[in-house]
Specification:
Layout: E1 6-11, E2 32-33, E3 37-38, H1 40-49, E4 54-58, H2 64-70, E5 84-88, H3 103-108, H4 111-117, E6 121-126, E7 129-131, H5 135-144, E8 149-155, E9 165-169, E10 175-180, E11 189-198, H6 199-208, H7 217-227, E12 232-236, E13 241-243, H8 247-256, E14 284-285, E15 290-292, E16 295-296, E17 301-302, E18 305-307, E19 310-311, E20 316-317, E21 322-324, E22 327-328, E23 333-334, E24 339-341, E25 343-345, E26 350-351, E27 356-357, E28 377-379, E29 384-385, E30 390-391, E31 395-398, E32 410-411, E33 416-418
Parallel strand pairs: 1-4, 1-6, 4-5, 8-12, 14-17, 15-18, 16-19, 17-20, 18-21, 19-22, 20-23, 21-24, 22-25, 23-26, 24-27, 25-28, 26-29, 27-30, 28-31, 30-32, 31-33
Antiparallel strand pairs: 2-3, 6-11, 7-13, 8-11, 9-10
Length: 424
Amino acid sequence: MIKKEMIAMLLAGGQGSRLGVLTANMAKPAVTFGGKYRIVDFALSNCINSGVDTVGVLTQYQPLKLNTHIGIGIPWDLDRNVGGVSVLPPYEKSSNTEWYTGTANAIYQNLKYMEYYNPEYVLILGGDHIYKMDYEMVLDFHKSHNADITLATIPVPMEEASRFGIVITNDESRIIDFEEKPKQPRSNLASMGIYIFTWKVLKEALIELSEQPGCDFGKHIIPYCHKNGKRIFAYEFNGYWKDVGTLTSYWQANMELIDLVPVFNLYEEFWKIYTKSEIIPPQYIAQGAYVEKAIISEGAEIYGQVFNSVIGPGVVIGEGTVVRDSIIMTGTVVGRKCEIYKSIVAEGCSIGNNVKMGVGEESPNVWKPAIYCEGLVTVAEGSVIPDNVSIGKNTAICGETLPEDYQNNWLPSGENIIKAGELN
């Protein structure tokens, strides 16, 4: 029988609905980040950098782009004969197809996969955070405390603590109580959704709670183990960790990469972030073009001006165009004489000539004000914007739009154009 000390189970099935039209056709972990990467690359790179060479990636919502990206794991050195990366979608049973209904239910449905490797420890990860963490240090902490479960935690500002699952610990870092999004938090130590379980403890809890609807680690498994006297400890992480689950936090995290001294450094030699890289030519900055404080990915062609922006691979910025404070993703073509301000433009879009985005007075979004806010313009994958139109702030566009979709060539702030059939 194969024996692995620790295997990782990476939960990558989430829709990421707070990212709005960016996740209309792909799972959140597949969304691009920092130009050439995808969000899932960070957890996968952490695994291989930490010596974890067996990773099950649990997919569900719109998995095609994610599956294609991961492939057999070559970029992360996870193409192994024993172990490596395995994509684990929900599978059909002889009686019925059972979707993953919660984080723990997803892991439970893959008990056979874990049993095959017969690990001593199982590392549970989310696929939608930006951070660098040495999981080996967490495992050493787990062993030294003789823990049954270790939760990675991070201190958060007290005023934000009610947004998280909060843990209360004693002097030895043992968890004595949990509070899920408490109104009056008693601690500011937040769970990061990263767990190390001793395999026997995890297996017993999953089987015991297998009938629990929507079985979840934070709501069901951890409280069950706590109630049954298991030794649960909090490993405190003090590095950079960003939940990029909202458009605003996603935009901010990208903008932080281009600070003169970035808080999160993509360029460290000893802890590289790996990704699947298409073989495309180097970037090209034309004569007369201007770039200031930006990430310009390979294959991009810049004929205009780019300020404080993240430009993905294969993007073309036309002559006379100005891009500021924006994220333009892989393969998008922006025409000539455009003005693009504080916009997130997804992959493979076509933006015509003389288009203005992110202009005018700000108004709340009429459809989803909590998602499309902070003045951002969000354009879904593969969308088309015709020539000579202007687009206000807090707007969303999805699909192939036509000149007649814009009244007097104008989409006012707070409005949206969502083409029928484009969103599920």
